[in-house]
């Protein structure tokens, strides 16, 4: 596996690479990230290359968020990428990615105004900007993202559509711990007591989906199931949002027939955890 840290070396690698499957990450990798790389390897077969990036993007952190303390574990991240089948990892510095006098940034004006975007203004503009730059640098034919951050996946699909990037986007199912908690780099922030309560997020989503499959279609009632479950089983958590939305537009749905999504974000002191469940028959 090749480690590349400069744009110059990346462009030289890309000229000889042929077809490329790309997995962008912010590092602090866990089994969920490894699954994305393995899925990219399966999709790529033996004829295409698998590239990953490790870059903690300052543009997607707010002024009071955890950019400075976000875990940086490059050595173990590289070992995980290699074991999962990556051919190349691009791990640049901030100075290598952003000019000090940069004055252009991508803005998203619809999908980013709800869910996580409502409480993290500017976050998805930072995501769109860095993903667009990485797509221009790596020039992948395909890119692989996890469904855990469903809003991010929807926005990246829109970015590719609206700006005509020649990249096919693959969404991969959320990878979970044995107790259902979605794997996340921020899970390491949880105290033992918080970690014991965190699986209630997934359990609450599953209860709501079971009620829907049983015939309940009123969004307010489905969301109330989640609120009640979290109140009983995740008292240490502080809810940021819980919403039932259309899977494609991310707009709220008063009633649900099909093709919906329930998404939530909950704070456990230093850790902000997100999860979702697709409501599809």
Spell out the blueprint of helices and strands.
Elements: E1 2-4, H1 7-15, E2 20-25, H2 31-44, E3 49-54, H3 74-84, E4 88-90, H4 94-97, H5 116-119, H6 123-138, E5 142-146, H7 150-163, E6 168-172, H8 192-197, H9 200-213, H10 219-233, E7 238-246, E8 260-268, E9 271-279
Helix pairs in contact: 2-3, 6-7, 9-10
Keywords: ATP-binding, Cytoplasm, Ligase, Nucleotide-binding, Pantothenate biosynthesis
Active site: 33
GO molecular function: ATP binding; pantoate-beta-alanine ligase activity
Characterization of the model:
It is a single chain. Strand 2 (20-25), helix 2 and strand 3 (49-54) form a beta-alpha-beta unit. The chain has two domains: 2-172, HUPs (Rossmann fold), CATH 3.40.50; 185-279, Pantoate-beta-alanine ligase, C-terminal domain (Pantoate--beta-alanine Ligase, Chain: A,domain 2, 2-Layer Sandwich), CATH 3.30.1300. The protein has 281 residues and is α/β, with parallel strands linked by helices. Helix content is 38%, strand content 20%. It has helices at 7-15, 31-44, 74-84, 94-97, 116-119, 123-138, 150-163, 192-197, 200-213, 219-233, and strands at 2-4, 20-25, 49-54, 88-90, 142-146, 168-172, 238-246, 260-268, 271-279. It has a six-stranded parallel sheet, sandwiched between helices. It has a three-stranded antiparallel sheet with strand order 7-8-9, covered by helices on one side. The relative contact order is 0.13. It is globular, with a radius of gyration of 19 Å. It has ten helices and nine strands.
